[in-house]
Amino acid sequence: MSETTQEQAGENARRSTGKNAGKNNEAGTAGKETSVLGDRARELDAADELAGLRKLFALGDGENGGVAAESRAGSAGVYLDGNSLGALPAHVPARMAEVLTREWGELRIRSWEESGWWTAPERIGDRIAPLVGAAPGQLVVGDSTSVNVFKALVGAVRLAGPGRDEIVVDATTFPTDGYIAESAARLTGTRLVPVEPGAVADAVGPRTAAALVNHVDYRDGRLHDLPGITAAVHAAGALAVWDLCHSAGALPVGLDEHGVDLAIGCTYKYLNGGPGSPAYLYVAERHQDRFDSPLPGWNSHADPFGMTTGYRAASGAARGRVGTPDILSMLALESALDVWDGVSVAAVRAKSLALTDFFLECVAAYVPEGRVVSMTPAEHRERGSQVALSCPEAPAVMERLIARGVVGDLRRPDVLRFGFTPLYVGFADTERAARVLAEVVREVPAGGGA
Ligand SMILES: Cc1ncc(COP(=O)(O)O)c(C=O)c1O
Ligand SMILES: Nc1c(O)cccc1C(=O)C[C@H](N)C(=O)O
Q1: Residues 288, 159: one domain?
Q2: Which of 80, 83, 84 should be mutated for ligand 2, with most atoms under 8 A from CB?
Q3: In terms of domains, do 186 and 75 share one?
Q4: What's the CATH code of the domain at 100?
Q5: ipTM > 0.90 (yes/no)
Q6: Residue 266 · residue 142 · CB < 8 Å
Q7: Would you say the CB of residue 243 lies under 6 angstroms from ligand 1?
Q8: Alpha-carbon distance 206 to 209, whole Å?
Q9: Ligand 2 mutation target, pool 81, 85, 148, most atoms within 8 A of CB
Q10: CA nearest 263: which of 191, 177, 329?
Q11: What is the pTM of this model?
């Protein structure tokens, strides 16, 4: 995509996204708008430098067959839920067949060494590292995000040392982080201080051990100021722990550049690792020697096969390991990461913003006025890679959208959430999703249920 077309998309969207995202429209104007925006979508797709990546995914487009073929059989099949579960890269099944038949089926126990199973957590951590702006040796893959939140937060309190007895937590966080933070606070004898991300800088002080914040909010898609909040947390002498679930693979993170202390994130959203694929833990190199994991399993022992009774922590990222890695999920993730070869996160970010701008513009043009309100920040610097629309009839609307092949998700009670994955979502998909949304909204009466 050229810079001019991106700027054009952004400018048009800025003009059209006010508080009321849907400000059109009598049925009569829709035809003209549709053809203009449809033409623009085709132009934007033609100029899109990432467009060729879509064929790497099993989205039912034809040659790859795949899971969504039946949903594309109708007029519209658009997958806008990659911020919950990323699509399957088409080459992964063949790689998994090899893992099952050759590595497990034939080599069996030898694969821990010969197939590189034992070192997979650090090796795959190094594959993810450039996507989140980290030098090698600081990420380890394994366990769920929830478990890694626990390791990171308790580890951060221990790193902060005595005299610091408060954990500041993002009050708007995805629930699991809040639940785990509450337990971590009880276990470490600290007090939990929940605040909005924008208030973290004012909430931290001499008693703060650590602050846990989401980079992008899972509901409204707001992008929080990682550099600014991290600097404020550091100025208070505390550690900054970031949850990257909704930003990794969608926008630049800059962990090393901004001096983040610890971070965690899942791999099944924009990294397309598959359902329940293992999460990652980042411990900045400067903290690794003192990182004291609250889950010191044998996999993080300096000499795991020594099988000694006393624990001695491994050095480096391996210190974040716990028990036997979930190899099948891990190797599916490793294979899925191949789609990133040669792809720049900056290009992904540029396309993501152009897609969300264009979606907001199409929604404003097509959806009858007052039926949906955008919760997604208009400012690019505050926007992740999703659009959230509040709509009182959201349950009925999302059910009908999915039935017509436009797959977003519902966050109860009234949020329609659409995730834009630049590796496989295009501008024609985006225009079509807004068009189908407008049709569905017209069918569901205001105040109407499912
Ligand atoms: C911000 C955030 N943190 C954590 C999680 C999930 O944690 P887990 O991978 O343990 O289910 C999610 C989504 O599921 C999320 O959106
Ligand atoms: N992790 C999920 C799962 O195992 C099942 C269904 C949804 C999810 C999610 O990822 C939810 C997601 N974090 C969200 O932003 O809403």
Answers
A1: yes
A2: 84
A3: no
A4: 3.40.640.10
A5: yes
A6: no
A7: yes
A8: 8
A9: 85
A10: 177
A11: 0.92
